[in-house]
Specification:
- This protein is an alpha/beta fold.
- It has an eleven-stranded mixed β-sheet, sandwiched between helices.
Length: 348
């Protein structure tokens, strides 16, 4: 891993708690991570936030932008708001002034802006949002993609998702031989709809993908897989359901544990354990999701992100930069394209 001093373009106006929480997260990241940060947005609003929080001795640069894509607006509005903060952040990466974009704003707008300004990697038909889920195995995560970028998919899209997930698992998560699974309604190869059946065949025949078979819903968090692929419709449902389960679990623990003096005493004794539980199941601890397949690093955070989540999103972006994820994906997809060309020639 080549550790670099990364430059992050942060959409300071995106999210429910922008710009205050975004700025606080940026200050912490500048202090604790080896990064320089561009805060893109309304200069006066950003400066007001910076004046409220100590930030001496760190490298934060304000980049002016006009307007923001609101959550209730359609994603295509990015075309009509060229000076919006998300477009300004993407432009910094396009112009090689920054290495990555992080935004907690409108996720559809972030994807649209990334495609318009950064473009797709060669050999990638559709970008995919990939997010990390905790598993039953301590210290182990599984990356699931797509979780929302493409509600309708072709088998070749899922094959590309599997390649991108494999690269990430190998070079960022450090898994030598990732186990790739296809999310399906059964383990058997003859289960599922037409998309699942055709995708299974593609994954099984691709030597670049360490495919081990179908993964059922209960397998997502089991730790038996390192990469799980699915279309964005199913993936987004899985993501939102998992987030809800995590929130409910934390809520139940907070409600039930302090009951009575024994519970209160137990809560004090178990405080370190409870903190570790929160770190494993709270989606805010992961920071956000990577947009795979665009020509640059882009992290999309939850709209309700607070400063801690923004800090983790910046950390996630830096890991992708340090491990040259985009370059490695480009190399893998080039091999896929060569293999497909060879097969086409053989079939002539």
């Amino acid at each position: 891993m080549a550790v670099t001093r990364a430059k992050i373009a942060l959409d300071a106006m995106g999210g429910d708690y922008a710009p205050e929480e975004i700025v606080i997260g940026a200050i912490r990241a500048s202090q604790e991570l080896d990064v320089d940060i561009f805060l893109v947005g309304d200069r006066q609003a950003i400066e007001d936030c910076l004046n409220r929080h100590p930030h001496q001795g760190i490298n934060l640069t304000i980049v002016d932008a006009e307007g923001v894509v609101e959550m209730e607006e359609d994603a295509v509005v990015v075309r009509r708001k060229p000076k919006a903060s998300i477009n300004g952040a993407m432009n910094l990466v396009k112009e090689k002034q920054a290495d990555a974009v992080v935004s907690a704003g409108h996720s559809g707008a972030a994807m649209a802006a990334a495609l318009l300004r950064l473009g797709r990697l060669k050999g990638i038909d559709r970008p995919a949002i990939g997010t990390l889920f905790p598993t039953m195995v301590p210290g182990k995560s599984v990356i699931v993609l797509d979780v929302g970028a493409n509600v309708d998919c072709k088998p070749k899209y899922l094959e590309q998702f599997a390649l991108m997930g494999t690269v990430y698992s190998q070079y960022v998560l450090g898994v030598d031989s990732p186990k790739v699974g296809l999310l399906n309604i059964g383990e058997e190869s003859n289960k599922g709809n037409t998309l699942a059946l055709q995708t299974h065949e593609l994954l099984q025949s691709n030597p670049e993908i360490p495919f081990v078979g179908n993964a059922e819903g209960r397998d997502v968090l089991s730790g038996n897989f390192d990469v799980i692929v699915c279309d964005g419709f199913v993936g987004n449902i899985v993501l939102k359901f998992a987030e809800a389960v995590g929130e409910i679990l934390l809520s139940i623990v907070k409600e039930e544990l302090p009951r009575g003096w024994r519970g209160k005493l137990g809560a004090i004794i178990l405080a370190p354990n409870l903190k570790r539980i929160k770190q494993r199941v709270d989606h805010a601890e992961h920071g956000g999701a990577l947009l795979f397949g665009v020509d640059g690093v882009c992290v999309i955070s939850h709209g309700s992100s607070r400063s801690g989540s923004i800090f983790n999103a910046i950390r996630l972006a830096k890991e992708a930069i340090d491990n040259q994820v985009s370059v490695r994906i480009n190399s893998s997809t080039s091999l896929l394209m060569e293999r497909q060309k060879t097969e086409e020639l053989q079939n002539i």
